[in-house]
Design goal:
By secondary structure, the chain is mainly alpha-helical. 56% of the residues lie in helices and 11% in strands. It is built from five helices and three strands, in the order αββααβαα. Strands 1-2-3 form a three-stranded antiparallel sheet.
Length: 179
């Protein structure tokens, strides 16, 4: 029996090699949530800087507590969405060449955030949040590491679609016409 690259479950020529990033961000997310639950009581706040606190909060809804008071069914809706998005992101990683680092990084970040928050929903029935910014004139809703990963990954996807997607498509067309 031989062991070669084609036998590998994760092909290094695809974006699946970026799953290491998803795993690292997921571990950091879950560890920081664990510390929050262990070290703070619900709604307890620990000041780090005058504008930044660690505050233990629970989010029963989605972004900005959307549908947070809907009675519990939203847990299943948001979990289902997270599973569907995660499956699609894994498909995108599998079908994107490993050399497309920007997009693979974006997909891996969104994937880790989706999985991190769905783990909370399935275990606790809510998402654990703890990063609390109060700028005096504006207080941002409390969030977590998974939310940061989703935001950065989504921003990267938007930036790509605004600035590079058309150029990439044009290059594909030119390469196709050269054949």
């Amino acid at each position: 029996m031989t062991n070669n690259a084609s036998d590998s479950t994760v092909n290094s020529s695809t974006g699946l090699i970026f799953l290491w990033l998803s795993l690292i961000v997921l571990i950091v997310d879950q560890f920081t949530k664990y510390l929050t639950i262990e070290m703070l009581d619900l709604y307890e706040s620990f000041e780090v800087l005058p504008f930044f606190n660690f505050t233990y909060a629970r989010n029963y809804g989605a972004a900005f507590s959307f549908l947070g008071d809907a009675g519990g069914w939203q847990k299943y809706l948001f979990s289902g969405i997270a599973f569907a998005v995660s499956g699609y992101l894994i498909y995108l990683l599998k079908t994107t060449k490993a050399t497309h680092r920007w997009m693979n990084t974006a997909y891996a970040l969104v994937l880790s955030g989706a999985i991190g928050n769905v783990i909370d929903r399935l275990i606790f029935g809510y998402v654990v949040d703890f990063l609390d910014f109060d700028l005096g004139f504006y207080r941002w809703p409390v969030f977590n590491v998974a939310d940061i990963a989703i935001f950065i990954g989504a921003a990267m996807i938007i930036i790509d679609s605004l600035f590079w997607a058309e150029k990439r498509e044009k290059a594909k067309e030119e390469a196709k016409n050269d054949k």
